[in-house]
Task: structure prediction
Amino acid sequence: MSAAPSSLEAAAEERKARLARLKSLKRKQDEGPPENDDNVPANDPAGGVARFFSGRNYDPVTQEPKLGFESAPTEGEVTLEDRAKTIAAEISRQQAEDENSDKPLDLFKLQPKKPNWDLKRDLDKKLEVLNVRTENAMAKLVRQRVKEQQDKARARAGGNGATGDGESIGMEGVTLLEGVHLREKEDEENEEREEQVEIS
Result:
């Protein structure tokens, strides 16, 4: 047991001595580069403290660490800052021209082309619902007219003593065609009215 504490004490003494040597080396580095003799270079491991560089920051030409970039990373590129500077210069130039000119503000440039553009924009959403309802009402009217004409055709067919199948089918196609033509005419009239309203 007596051998163990003496070996531990010896290890502790060795460690203390090693730490003291490292401290003294660090103090020498912090104080600045040691004065060089003419015979011993500064980065010679035998004559002083050796410098270690990684591959990223070592410049083999000067044998020193690289300081900064050789060229700017944004060289030859148009950056956002450059664009902002050009826009600011253009705006200041336009302001100077506006101040130098004594012309009053042209109010016609501020007005929209059509004075009711905002009303149309707001009403378009509401008109979509109304257009659907209008189309449904028109289809209902056409169906009623077709039904009335079919009833009249059946009454005529029943009075003449004909079977009614052939005539009613033929009559149905004719009435449907008339209904389609009637609807096309109404659509054309509505478009003409809208064009007249827009013109005036």
